[in-house]
Amino acid sequence: MVEENAHLEEEAVMATVPIIRYAGFWMRFWAYLFDLLIIGSINRLIVYPFFQWLHLSSEETSMFSPIAVATAVTFYAYFVLMTKYFQQTLGKMVFGLKVANLNDRPLTWLTVLFREVVGKFISKFILFIGFLFVAFSKKKQGLHDQIADTTVIHE
């Protein structure tokens, strides 16, 4: 009887502890592609017409041309603001994923900026190898996640 009660208590404790499912490489890849479609649409529907309305050149002649800077701002603003306010981008929403802090705390501005700007820049720097870390790490963390102490989980 005592053993049975202990077993029932253990099951009750296990039922209250949420099971964390880390998002793997391919789920995150498809969510990212969806996000790129969203960002491309924003640029084509808002940024480029705005440049035409102001009679500014929308040709990318250099990395620092006005249109290149504007589209880069759109790209980073999308990822930073969506991650900070919703813990997920539209792509992650579609695939049921969200960014989580490994310390079970809310994402701070510093964490989001390190993850989305600094960490992703480093992850992309050498042939996108930092993103491949997702496929091989225990908690499915990319290099940018490891820098910011975050991971991506299934909701």
- Percentage of residues in helical conformation: 55-70%
N-to-C series of helices and strands: HHHHEHHHE
Can you tell me the overall shape? elongated
Strand order of the largest sheet: 1-2
The DSSP helix count reads: 7
Total of domains: 1
Extended strand count: 2
Biggest sheet architecture: 2 strands, antiparallel
Distance between the termini: 38 Å
Radius of gyration: 20 Å
Q: What value does the average pLDDT take?
A: 89
Residue stretches low in confidence (pLDDT < 50, at least 5 long) are none
Strand content: 5-15%
- Structural class label: mainly alpha
List the helices and strands and how they pair.
Elements lengths: L1 H15 L8 H29 L12 H21 L3 H6 L1 E5 L7 H17 L3 H8 L6 H6 L1 E5 L1
Helix pairs in contact: 2-3, 3-5
Structural account:
With 155 residues, the chain is mainly α. Helices cover 66% and strands 6% of the residues. The chain has a two-stranded antiparallel sheet with strand order 1-2. Helix 2 (25-53) packs across helix 3 and helix 3 packs across helix 5. It is elongated, with a radius of gyration of 20 Å. The two termini are 38 Å apart. This is RDD family protein.
Entry summary:
InterPro entries: Pra-immunoreactive, RDD. The protein has seven helices and two strands. It has helices at residues 2-16, 25-53, 66-86, 90-95, 109-125, 129-136, 143-148, and strands spanning 97-101, 150-154.
Keywords:
155 residues; mainly alpha; two-stranded antiparallel sheet; 2 strands; 66% helix
